Please model this.
Amino acid sequence: MTGTTTRALDLRYFAWLRERIGEGGETVETGAPTVRALVEELREREERYALAFSDLRAVRVAVDQELADLDAPIGNAREVAFFPPMTGG
Amino acid sequence: MAVRVQREDFDLGAELARLREGRTDIGALVSFTGLVRDLDGRLREFELEHYPEMTARALEGIEAEARARWPLQASLIIHRYGRLAPGEQIMMVATASAHRQAAFEAAEFLMDYLKSRAPFWKKETTPEGAHWVDAREEDEAALERWEERR
Model:
């Protein structure tokens, strides 16, 4: 492939996603254009990611601390967070 | 017009007194307090995780939306995180308005939104082990009635 650039992106994991992945966050090198593409990259990396992201209906996303959906572009975002449906209140 | 995210407990009475201090234009002050519930005495531990960099901002966004929809004179959201014991206060919302309908509706709106749009996750430990509390479908459905009325 030509013209593919990657850059550093901070990832954050919360609740059972954090537990399944085994850490609260990390910095990755990625060229993924969307959150969904990023999830695909992670799934292929290691079994623990495949397990954490096995059911995407149970995963919510924030891009730079704003709720977003899986097809959201990553653009110039600095941080992408993954977590289960929220249970505040 | 305030949001606080904190580990410490809060004094509901003192918070409400502060909210209306020095004011005579408030006719209705509504508050809701959420507590750690232990229906059958089996709850060993209760923990609230959150996303510190996002939480206050998310709550402020929800509060701003309520203030755009109802004529509120004052509002307050306090949400705790960390390890809590059964019976402890988890969070509160308060809304003040000239009339009760706006205060009641805005308080319900705040609760409905922060249930499923504020980045908190509850973990309960019972004798069988620890589990993350599932989001309830009713909570998501509760948002729809506000969407319709936009």
Summary: The radius of gyration of chain A is 13 Å.
